[in-house]
Amino acid sequence: MPHSVSGVEMRKRQAAHIEAPPQAPGQPRPNTCCLCWCGCCKCLWNEDRIERSERQTCTKMDSIEATEEQRPSLEELLSWARSFEMMLRSLEGREIFREFLRSEYSEDNLLFWLACEELKKETNPSVVDEKARIIYEDYVSILSPKEVSLDSRVREGINQSLVEPSNMMYEEAQLQIYTLMHRDSFPRFLNSSVYRDLLASRRRTCLDT
Known about the structure:
By secondary structure, the chain is mainly α. The chain has 10 helices and no strands. Helix 5 (about 90-105) packs antiparallel against helix 6 (about 105-120), helix 6 packs antiparallel against helix 7 and helix 6 packs across helix 9 (about 170-190).
């Protein structure tokens, strides 16, 4: 007749198979997936998760490095001081100049100029008509809070062109605003902390390297 197992011995046998505190029914152990309840480090799901995390970290670092590379170089910053046109043709230059204009409450001049540049590229008549009217409502209409400063002759020419809008209808107005920014805003920009601080920062970076 088999010997009965005492309560103490039974508890010892049970304890030998317990590797971790008991989990609530239906709950996986930490760091496991629904397909792996053992929590072992070799679970394919765990390995994939670690690899995915490393890729995301690398992607973030690549993004940071790309951002650093997109910043204007010292040579580019110095070229802006020599040419207003060159600064406007640079994406970074426009963004920095726009930041300065915003501090002077004249950002709309640059936005108007950029909108006219975009209109010039359009060839579809219906798109030209739509964009031309949007520009008028945003920057030419006396009812707009973003109205730019145009003389009466140029404004009258625009009003007549609205009958049959074209992609070049704002050319004279755009030149007038360009001249205003070049002669009025640009010299102040070059003497502003926005530009000078950025220039000093790039010079320090060059010296450090």
